[in-house]
């Protein structure tokens, strides 16, 4: 499990420490407070664990700075040379740290300090971006490998995770339970034929993903990642705006699946703008669940800070609640004949 992410002069962050829960971590905040940057940085660290690549190159492929210059990921406040760093910790003592300067173009020249655990022990992980990609999967992976198309690597990665075949042998009853919950909402299950994903049910037509509602595609992706073991004990899920394109009923299903996954040993770092999704996570929480809320905000000096709490209601800097309170006030004023 990841225990801490520390940024210093990295992209949007001047200096920021995130202490993580082993269960579900929920990032909230206004646009431009670095939620997606935090997800991508931590995902890049997980993706290269176990000798699967170079952290500098992975950061560049996930962020796509101009001309592939890793120096552009350094937080800048004015002219002159400066440096930035990213640290990601596993448990208490295992650290990965990368340091780069604004003049550094070659990602492999960045200074990397990596504990042996990071070098030898891989982390099963997945990053689900806001945009659903399975409908665009046919031909994408081969094109991405052969051509310099301007797509962040998280899109290619999630397609590759979805293509992974099912685990051999009988299914664990816990995994089967989650698949059945998703199949009930989907009214069927997911099949892969060549590079194309299909929705299939016992009776009726088989539909390719391009003809399926985007909310159902998200459930289909979850079904695939659980079926093939990408999401199970010891893995880490990064999900940017899980609520996107989901109606309230499907939000509840997704929140329910996420709670079950963290009980089965999956750590999650999510970013959301939805009060409805937060409330679903809250209402489904039981005593054994580990939820931690991280509110990102800009202080009076325009520097991004974080406030973390195990209780959503204890957060003082809460952009979602503030927006909902303002909406309620304006609604009440409008109903009384005023305009706000």
Would you give an account of this structure?
- This protein has 340 residues and is an alpha/beta fold.
- The protein folds into two domains: 1-124 and 234-340, 3-Layer(aba) Sandwich (Rossmann fold), CATH 3.40.50; 133-231, no CATH class.
- The protein contains ten helices and 14 strands.
- The strands form three sheets. Strands 7-11-12-3-13-14 form a six-stranded mixed β-sheet. A five-stranded antiparallel β-sheet has the order 2-1-4-5-6.
- Helix 6 (173-186) packs antiparallel against helix 8.
- The longest helix has 17 residues, at 319-335.
- It is globular.
- The mean pLDDT is 92.
Kindly report the name of the CATH homologous superfamily of the largest domain.
Answer: P-loop containing nucleotide triphosphate hydrolases
Question: In terms of structural class, how would the helical and strand content be classed?
Answer: alpha/beta
CATH topology of the largest domain: Rossmann fold
The whole-number mean of residue pLDDT values reads: 92
Question: How many structural domains in the coordinates?
Answer: 2
CATH architecture of the largest domain: 3-Layer(aba) Sandwich
Could you say which overall geometry the principal axes of the C-alpha atoms support? Answer: globular
Q: What is the percentage of strand-forming residues?
A: 15-25%
Low-confidence stretches: none
Roughly how many Å is the radius of gyration?
A: 21 Å
Q: State the major sheet.
A: 6 strands, mixed
Q: Output the number of helix runs.
A: 10
Number of strands: 14
